[in-house]
């Protein structure tokens, strides 16, 4: 669709007529500045009245066309593409996922893969459901890394989560550094702390990093960042041994007390996932606790076309000036 951004500029088309109508004509200067009697020998024959009329008419029409083209360029002609609906973020959602060595334990149900694979399946579906939110991904082990900044491109975030390798950030667990990384990322974005949520998933205790979880949680609370913590790991169960039945706890390294403390300090909530179904239910609850806001706005891609009439007008004006100089 063709349109003009500033159609009111067309009112300036009458300016030359107004100037000619109401301003006095310029006084012609007929007296030469330098008298050189010998120059007449080199002058061409004077133009006939018809030639002068044709030249004057050509100049007038050329100037008139140039003025029209410049006014068209000033009105900003544009080509508008098809309407596109863009989502407007309701909140900023950061996912912090533990990729330490213990995530390779396969205890999330009979026949289920390791903890990391279960998280990839369930969290990947959760990411795709968060239409309208900007999502960021943080991976942490011995160190915390920002894998993706906040973005509407949920497919890319989900794909990067699927490509995550256990131990890529180290074999230990730096919970405090992961929270600190989320705070640092939000601090660099304008109004990012408004409706900001961090979902932190881990299967262990803080045993690495530079920031203690309590200190990081206090800083998050000051920034208005709500943190939902998820502890993953199989439930205690009995197994057969040489000495008979005995109870084992696959998630004995999980520091649930610290995860509850983090959630309480920031206004979030702590969840415990022992298998794929409970993890799926946790993410379903998060959808209810932090529902997506599906606001959107309609935009049209715009291509500016003013350069074409502007370039044509300048080219004609250059040719007129050249013609004028050669004849005069």
From TrEMBL:
Record-linked SUPFAM superfamilies: vWA-like
Pfam family, one: VWA
Alphabetical list of InterPro entries matching this protein: UPF0353/GerABKA_families (IPR050768), vWA_BatA_type (IPR033881), VWF_A (IPR002035), vWFA_dom_sf (IPR036465)
Sequence intervals crossing the membrane: 305-325
Taxonomic superkingdom: Bacteria
Keywords assigned: Membrane, Transmembrane, Transmembrane helix
Ranges where the VWFA domain occurs: 92-286
Record-given protein name: Ca-activated chloride channel family protein
